[in-house]
Amino acid sequence: MTAEQFSVWAPGRDRVRLVTGDQRHEMTRDERGWWHVEVPGVSPAVDYAFLLDDDGTEYPDPRSRWQPAGVHGPSRRYDHAGFEWTDQAWTGRALAGSVLYELHIGTYTEQGTFDAAVERLDHLVELGVDLVEVLPVNAFDGVEGWGYDGVLWGAVHDPYGGPDGFKRFVDACHARGLGVVLDVVYNHLGPSGAYLDKFGPYFAGETIWGPTLNLDGPDSDEVRRYVVDNALSWFRDFHVDGLRLDAVHALRDTRATHLLEQLSAEVDALSAALGRPLSLVAESDLNDPKHTTPRESGGYGLTAQWTDDLHHALHVAVTGEVTGYYTDFGQPGALEKVLRNAFFHTGTWSSFRKRTHGRPLDTRTASGHRYLIYLQNHDQIGNRATGDRLTATVSPDRVLAAAALVFTSPYTPMVFMGEEWAASTPWQFFASFPDEQLAEAVRTGRRKEFAEHGWGESEVPDPMSPDTVAASRLRWSELAEPVHRKVFETYKALIALRRAEPQLSDPRLSELVVESGEGWVVLHRGTLRVAVNLSASEIALPIAATRTLLAAEGAQVGTDTVVLPADTFAVVAVA
Predict the structure, then answer these.
(1) Cβ of 269: how many Cβ atoms within 10 Å?
(2) Which residues form the signal peptide (predicted)?
(3) Tag placement on the chain: N or C end, fewer CB within 10 Å?
(4) For the domain bounded by 100-502, which CATH number is listed?
(5) What is the pLDDT of residues 266-280, one digit of tens each?
(6) Residue 309 annotated as part of some ligand binding site
(7) Under 8 Å CB-to-CB from 101, ≥6 apart: which residues?
(8) Kind and range of the H or E run holding 568
(9) pLDDT tens figures, 299-320
């Protein structure tokens, strides 16, 4: 037993007490609104909570590191120094030149834990990816969920394995040469267990997802510190190599120095101290190059951003679906434009938004590695009514043809778990809120949302049903089946080719040439040509090939012509 120091920021409170077991300890306030107390004779791993004024409710620590009893229970002290890392030789993994793999711990394996996921890491090594992007692991209410309803950002979800479990996962990734990117959510908090406003002026309004943070109002300095310190902790204490920042367009900040710029500067400083590259990847709906423009040039200095326009154009080319936000991407030449420029909407009219949208990217200076491209991801599958993957409606061959564009483009490719073998399992929206009223509200809201788009109530899976979670878990046995194995081997070959041929990972957009026609695309990558047919008819392209690097079954490469049957591709060298 030792003396333990406890602190909490609660600037508007007149009295704060620490609760440890059946003991109450009066805390002392300093001039910045922080309350402190030193408690002798308690375990370093003691459970604790706070009493605010005469509320009578025991609240968990906003900066909790561990919530073994859930988000409504007491916090537990956790010593980061107590974990024995084995990755001392790890020098990091830069984003440039890498291939990412996005996975959700709860459905990646049947067990849904970090330790079970470790048992499947060798599959990713065989596939050839470089960075594992993990959906949020912060504490949320319930056992099952996507993770975007987190409320205690520094506490790792205990059903996954808690903080030690996540560290074992990161350590095991590094042992295999895999970097780790963690998805974090700073734009809102979940609907259950968000007690921050009980302590201080953390909240400043609402988004469509939940309360948003006070980043620029009175007493916002400590709120911003709350965000930045959380991000730095993932890098420093959990050894992650990157953070994917969820929906940064929903971060409301009118300060001269935006939160993203502040975060970028502090992460760069930590990177220098740790001696390894640290990446920040934004998800943004703004089509604004400012996010990845260096700070010295007036930007935020983030490493990269997701590029939904690239996804949308590919999705339309593969499926023909042109409803909702896909409408504009059915225009002739849309895929070619996005392949050249990363963005489709560049200050141009967006029919979905009913306004102009975006800003042009300067392809003379922009690096393609700063823009992530994907055929599928958790949002673009899971936010469909039934969570259906591409191969639920189109052939695996067509998906492979589109994948050839993803892996040979100047952009950073990302794969969603199971995509690499055309998994038959959907990935559906699910949660497990114990509060029945909240659960019913989520269930009803989901069905109402899709009813407006013509889906019947019975067609939309119940997000609160354990069956929905079970249906979304990968079935690893499929890898042994010939059709699925063929897809896997092709994905593996495409990734290996990207690594073997530097021209295919060259991120310079100024060097890219794109040709396209009705259902076909040809990328010029130095002396290589990537020819893809996404139409239902055979095409013959006048390409004088000197050798074939990789080609789909049925593709015919001649000395002056490449013939591609429907849904095939070929990567060839030219003189």
Answers:
(1) 12
(2) none
(3) C
(4) 3.20.20.80
(5) 999 999 999 999 999
(6) yes
(7) 124, 127, 129, 131, 132, 133, 414, 415, 417
(8) strand 568-574
(9) 999 999 999 999 999 999 999 9
